[in-house]
TrEMBL record:
Superkingdom of source: Bacteria
Pfam families assigned to the protein according to its UniProt record, in alphabetical order: Sulfotransfer_3
Protein name per Swiss-Prot or TrEMBL: Sulfotransferase family protein
Keywords for the protein's UniProt record, in alphabetical order: Transferase
Record organism: Desulfoscipio gibsoniae DSM 7213
Lineage: Bacteria, Bacillati, Bacillota, Clostridia, Eubacteriales
Keyword Coiled coil annotated: no
GO molecular function: protein-tyrosine sulfotransferase activity
């Protein structure tokens, strides 16, 4: 079912490490727009809605709302809610008994509790795989897609505490995300879709922000450049992976691949995603390396092993991963209860069955390798959780 809103919702999408969070915090500084922390709600829940049964039944809708609200990376998005009554408060605001109803109510609640703002947005990079479902849920949604030089995005991903372990897998991921949005760029109108580049944003931030404001129909506000003074910027800026959010916008992260990627790694990227890099408007300046099936198999296995091993490393994502694993357990428990069966799985439901399904929906490591290394779950936060 579709929900039409008086104020169009804004979705910020793009490959991870491409500047989506920067756009998120900039928009969130606008006096009329509330943008909470990353949600991962479409990737994590939408493909598996069949496991909740009929959402017209109060108990099933409550289960979905409970898991969506309490499974946020940042606890309750920092909202002043009583955990005992939070789900009741949320359900009292749903416009319809559906995933879209709960999703909308969560964002409207956040907007009300953060300056009583009339409009909301959401930044989840992998929402780029769910543009179709988002448009079905919110037909008036607007999308801002940010692209960054794939080599810079990939090396930034490699340097992070939660990304791929080698340039082959990083390039493959960048290629997948670029190709995922190509049909939508062509299908959606100029009122629904806007492309920006990370490089333009950090070199000419006011100019690009003015264009964004024109696109979404809002007045530009200079406070958008003070993103680093906001709540999310302050919290994320204290972490290694998001340190740039702790200071004013800078272009010093452009071209980092030239220092951090070897020539061989640049050639691997060119072999995997050189065509897409050129499509995105970036210059390819090395010859692609010849990659054998044996190379691919080795790099994928190493990536899987290292991802699992680093989950509980400093600033790793073991807490979030543990909750995602718990969600899978809950789905299985509902199957045993008879709420759903194999016959209920929708045909051609993306990304079920996709070779990268686990990564697309937000896991940081594959179940195979977590079990191989007997990775223990952790449900108690240590350090900063955003």
């Amino acid at each position: 079912m579709a929900i039409m809103l008086k104020e169009k919702p804004i979705f910020v999408i793009g490959n991870e490490r491409s500047g989506t969070t920067l756009v998120m915090v900039m928009l969130g500084q606008h006096s009329r727009i509330a943008v909470p922390e990353v949600g991962w709600l479409f990737p994590r829940f939408y493909p598996y809605l069949y496991t909740y049964g009929d959402l017209n039944k109060e108990e099933n809708l409550r289960t979905l709302a409970d898991e969506m609200l309490f499974g946020l990376n940042r606890h309750l998005w920092g909202m002043d809610l009583n955990p005992r009554t939070a789900v009741n408060e949320l359900l009292a605001e749903v416009k319809e008994k559906s995933f879209a109803g709960v999703y909308c109510a969560m964002h409207e609640m956040f907007a009300r509790k953060n300056g009583n703002k009339p409009r909301w947005g959401q930044k989840t990079p992998h929402n780029l795989y769910f543009v179709g479902p988002i448009k079905e849920c919110f037909p008036d949604a607007q999308f801002i897609y940010i692209v960054r030089d794939g080599r810079d995005a990939s090396v930034d991903y490699l340097e992070s505490s939660f990304g791929p372990a080698n340039i082959f897998c990083a390039a493959e991921n960048w290629k997948m995300t670029w190709n995922a949005v190509k049909p939508w760029r062509e299908k959606l109108s100029a009122e629904e879709w806007m492309d920006i580049t990370y490089e333009d944003l950090v070199r000419k931030p006011e100019e690009v922000l003015r264009k964004i404001c024109d696109f979404i129909g809002e007045e530009y506000e200079s406070t958008m450049l003070d993103f680093w003074k906001g709540d999310i910027g302050q919290k994320r800026g204290t972490t290694r992976d998001h340190k740039p959010l702790g200071h004013a916008v800078s272009d010093k992260y452009i071209g980092i691949y030239k220092e951090l990627l070897s020539i061989r790694d640049q050639r691997i990227f060119a072999a995997v995603a050189g065509k897409e890099l050129a499509e995105a408007g970036y210059q390819n300046d090395v010859e692609p390396l010849t990659i054998t099936p044996e190379d691919e198999a080795r790099w994928r296995e190493f990536d899987g092993r290292i991802r699992a091993a680093l989950l509980d490393a400093p600033e790793g994502h073991i807490l979030f991963e543990s909750y995602r694993d718990w969600l899978v357990d809950q789905r299985e428990a509902r199957r045993r209860q008879g709420i759903w069966s194999e016959a209920d799985i929708p045909k051609d439901m993306f990304p079920i069955g996709h070779s990268h399904e686990e990564l697309i929906v937000g896991f940081r490591a594959w179940k195979k390798w977590k079990e191989h290394f007997s990775i223990k779950r952790q449900y108690t936060a240590k350090g900063i959780v955003f």
